[in-house]
Amino acid sequence: MRLDKYVAQALQLSRSEARSKILRGGIWVNGQVCKKADTNVTDKDEITSGGESLSQTQFVYLMLYKPEGVVSASNDKRQVTVVDLVKSHFPRRNLFPAGRLDKTSTGFVLLTDDGAFAHQILAPRRHVPKTYQVELDTPATQQMVEAFEKGVTLADGQTMKPAQLVIQQDDPHQVEVVLHQGVYHQIKRMFGVLGAGVNRLHRTAIGPVELDTGLQPGEWRALTPQEVEQLRESCQM
Ligand code: URA
């Protein structure tokens, strides 16, 4: 990647702002000032500004608590999207959700501009498990647990991969579901063929990373480098 593009992305500057920073001698590559904006740099180069490394900020990874009524898309003409909730902070980033939640669902949505990373965590072969807290309109049963374990066949004939269903002891309307794939309306359709409706669906974790309990609906924070690493490890990237 060209140095001016790298600096623009890392520091959220326009290309011309990045170029003038480089020309003023504000950017160092591998320990030396570099004033050439068209220098090619790679992951192996150490790029610093004011003594701070820029390598960690090459991509953005955010944990968003999606509220109800917001759509999981980058942009939409009529509806508020998950990216709308953060974009004033990242005006020059092409953020998108790595995986979708229905408009009525709430919880953890991962936003990033790292396409390769998103592809890896969503790829069917190594799909990172996702955990949901679900409220049903009828009590869950042991038969449902077994059907989830075996793999539920949807109304259109597709058989889902085995999934885990845990019934909350003091209230069988409340269940935890772990999915290993992402099919449109999957949980609602799985319960639908078993005769139960979903009142509420909330994603609590993506792989080993749990939605921060300190976040309110609509709030977000950056994933820590450790959390990004845990997600990479959970799909053996
Ligand atoms: N399954 C659904 O039915 N909806 C979601 O939002 C996520 C999983």
TrEMBL record:
<dbReference type="InterPro" id="IPR000748">
    <property type="entry name" value="PsdUridine_synth_RsuA/RluB/E/F"/>
</dbReference>
<dbReference type="Pfam" id="PF01479">
    <property type="entry name" value="S4"/>
</dbReference>
<dbReference type="GO" id="GO:0005829">
    <property type="term" value="C:cytosol"/>
</dbReference>
<keyword id="KW-0694">RNA-binding</keyword>
<dbReference type="GO" id="GO:0000455">
    <property type="term" value="P:enzyme-directed rRNA pseudouridine synthesis"/>
</dbReference>
<protein>
    <recommendedName>
        <fullName>Pseudouridine synthase</fullName>
        <ecNumber>5.4.99.-</ecNumber>
    </recommendedName>
</protein>
<dbReference type="InterPro" id="IPR002942">
    <property type="entry name" value="S4_RNA-bd"/>
</dbReference>
<dbReference type="InterPro" id="IPR018496">
    <property type="entry name" value="PsdUridine_synth_RsuA/RluB_CS"/>
</dbReference>
<dbReference type="InterPro" id="IPR020094">
    <property type="entry name" value="TruA/RsuA/RluB/E/F_N"/>
</dbReference>
<dbReference type="InterPro" id="IPR036986">
    <property type="entry name" value="S4_RNA-bd_sf"/>
</dbReference>
<dbReference type="InterPro" id="IPR050343">
    <property type="entry name" value="RsuA_PseudoU_synthase"/>
</dbReference>
<feature type="domain" description="RNA-binding S4">
    <location>
        <begin position="1"/>
        <end position="62"/>
    </location>
</feature>
<dbReference type="InterPro" id="IPR006145">
    <property type="entry name" value="PsdUridine_synth_RsuA/RluA"/>
</dbReference>
<dbReference type="InterPro" id="IPR020103">
    <property type="entry name" value="PsdUridine_synth_cat_dom_sf"/>
</dbReference>
<keyword id="KW-0413">Isomerase</keyword>
<comment type="similarity">
    <text>Belongs to the pseudouridine synthase RsuA family.</text>
</comment>
<dbReference type="InterPro" id="IPR042092">
    <property type="entry name" value="PsdUridine_s_RsuA/RluB/E/F_cat"/>
</dbReference>
<dbReference type="Pfam" id="PF00849">
    <property type="entry name" value="PseudoU_synth_2"/>
</dbReference>
<dbReference type="GO" id="GO:0003723">
    <property type="term" value="F:RNA binding"/>
</dbReference>
<dbReference type="GO" id="GO:0120159">
    <property type="term" value="F:rRNA pseudouridine synthase activity"/>
</dbReference>
